[in-house]
Write a structure and sequence with these properties.
3 domains, single chain, Cobalt-precorrin-4 Transmethylase, domain 1, five-stranded mixed β-sheet, alpha/beta, binds S-adenosylmethionine, Methyltransferase, Cobalt-precorrin-4 Transmethylase, Domain 2, five-stranded parallel β-sheet
Length: 287
């Protein structure tokens, strides 16, 4: 495997032996990029999750090209076919039904194997529901965790819910409309009803809406309603220190004030731990 890949140009025309990962709209077809359309029009082959979905984009923009299906069920046989095709000097575009391939969609195995075969990968970026919802939430978007769909198995699910309850980072989840009420109740149980969340529904579509408040209020909002459409959930990080009601921002401020006055981190942590009845390393690690 080579250490780096370099390209003679990254223009509109596809290059030989390149696998293009092409982002497509998550609802509003006008979100397709000019570059994505050119690549879809000019690559030798488009590998798509569902040919019927991709045909909708192709017909809307009056382009035609060769399509093959590439999904969870047939990826085992498709991957070697696509790799051989690329190796013979052709270019291939990979698209999913909506959004960025590989993000809770097929793609990463193909990319992994293409890289092992020294095939260059270029992404033509497009919309992604996770980031689209995140940036509308006003929550910390510089440090976040994307969990996609929570696992169904109780033990695995509880583990992630526990992690979400403890993290200071923003968490992004995908969920289907008929399971969202159950998920909200689980989040309430783990994070408390006062944790801030945002349910983003039907992003980029006609009935886009963002219901954001604390978990209790959001549960209340949906109580007598049937929920439709596609949903992305944004969960604010905790502002409470582990096993306490003490605000992290408040403690950080206290810690910084002591350090600025010349006290060492160790001594300041010891002092605050005693003052608030906390473990010293919890405070030490805030720095
Ligand atoms: N690859 C896609 C992406 O980049 O966002 C995600 C595919 S995943 C199979 C589909 C899930 O993404 C949906 O169940 C929903 O949770 C979320 N999603 C996709 N489109 C959405 C939209 N328009 N509004 C809200 N959430 C959306």
């Amino acid at each position: 495997m080579s250490i780096n890949s370099s390209f003679s140009h990254r223009g509109l025309e596809p290059e030989k032996k390149v696998l293009y990962i092409v982002g497509t709209p998550i609802g509003n077809l006008d979100d397709i990029s000019f570059r994505a359309l050119n690549i879809l029009k000019n690559v030798s082959l488009i590998a798509c999750e569902d040919t019927r979905q991709t045909k909708k984009i192709m017909s809307r923009f009056k382009i035609s090209n060769k399509l093959i299906s590439f999904n969870k069920i047939n990826s085992f046989e498709r991957i070697p076919q696509i790799i051989n095709y690329l190796k013979s000097g052709e270019s291939v575009a990979l698209v999913s039904d909506a959004g960025m391939p590989s993000i809770c969609d097929p793609g990463e195995d193909l990319v992994k194997i293409a890289k092992l075969n020294s095939i260059d990968i270029i992404c033509i970026p497009g919309p992604c529901a996770a980031l689209t919802a995140l940036v509308t939430s006003g929550m910390n978007a510089s440090s976040f965790i994307f969990e996609g769909f929570l696992p169904r198995k109780k033990k695995d699910r509880e583990k992630i819910l526990f992690e979400i309850s403890k993290t200071e980072k923003t968490t992004i989840l995908y969920e289907s409309p008929h399971r969202i009420k159950k998920l909200l109740e689980e989040l309430k149980k783990h994070c408390g009803g006062d944790r801030e969340i945002q349910v983003s529904r039907e992003l980029t579509k006609k009935f886009e809406e963002h219901i954001g408040n604390d978990i209790d209020k959001v549960i209340n909002f949906f109580q007598d309603k049937e929920i439709f459409g596609e949903i992305t959930l944004i969960i604010n990080g905790t502002n409470k220190l582990e096993n306490s009601d003490i605000d992290i921002a408040f403690l950080k401020k206290e810690l910084n004030e002591l350090i600025y006055s010349g006290i060492s981190l160790t001594s300041a942590s010891k002092y605050l731990a005693k003052k608030f009845g906390l473990k010293k390393n919890l405070i030490y690690n805030l720095k």
